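Structure ticket #2291
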Amino acid sequence: MALTGELVRLRPIEPEDADPMWRWHNDPDAMRWMTEGYPESLAQLRKRLADFPPNSYSRVRFAVETLDEGRFVGVVVLRDAEPESGRAEVDIYFGDADARGKGYGTEALRLLCRWGFHNMRLHAIQLYVVVDNVAAVRVYEKVGFIVEGRLREVFRRDGQLHDMLLMSVLAREFEQA
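Resolution: structure written out below.
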């Protein structure tokens, strides 16, 4: 199954995606506003991707590919979905620097949200973003996300603490955006 827009296609992540992802994970610019885990070898990442459980209601992972070149440029994930509340959390990142600022992220997020609201029957999708990640905040607002709250001094980067925003979009707000 793939979700296709005008600029990007979302498809399930494959073990072969490990090589570019490993490069991204070792690129300080790509990971600037991401939560860092512990260092991981390429072999470990390949194994982790090969061992991923299948996509399900609680976690759906997609690779983002450009339509014009078929190039893998990013990842979007809907996770922690709860049927009782109809809520899920989204993670998105673009590791390929050449893909940033071209509308791919906005379209990928719209495709994912549309799929979550229509196919998973979610009521709300939320995310956390570092306040200083201005480009990401702008993308989220374009898609219809609004700020629900602010967590103070919770993200550490370069020896400094940064605030994070909790943002969300409800299904009815998404349809109006």
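Closing remark: The helical segments are 18-25, 42-50, 104-118, 134-143, 171-176.
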